[in-house]
Specification:
Helix content is about 45%, strand content about 20%. By secondary structure, the chain is an alpha/beta fold. It has a single domain, classed as Nucleotidyltransferase, domain 5 (2-Layer Sandwich), CATH 3.30.420. The chain has a 5-stranded mixed sheet with strand order 3-2-1-4-5, with helices on both faces. The chain starts with 11 loop residues before the first strand and ends with a helix.
Amino acid sequence: MCYTESMITKQIIAFDIGDKRIGVAVSDPFGEYAMPVETYWRTKNFAHDVEQIVKIAEARFVGTIVCGLPVNFDGSESVQTVKTMRFIEAMREKTKIPIELEDERFTTLQAHEILIQEGVRREKRKNNVDSIAASYILDTYLARIRNQS
């Protein structure tokens, strides 16, 4: 497939927001696939963490932020849902970049499984599992918006 300049869009960034770490993934310039980028290790300072995550998004000049929304197996809210929404609302106060939500059920489990299959030792998995989970969140989002078009 040949790509034209008009087919290139602003990248999309995804965050898998956890209590200890936040996984980061970005789309390719064509919005076809997601790539794990980094893991941000949270501090004990909520406001600082929000500012740092917004800076990561703004430094990449993304057009959209996608945040994984953790819900229970049946789709109902959990304690983690409330914590994540609090973080997302704080992000919305700090940036003009639109923030979308995407169901993140099973993404961390999938990320762990892929790392186990690749033979990554348990103590090293935590360095990559969240960014891989963020890439699954972003892949799901990209597929959903492609299907809507």
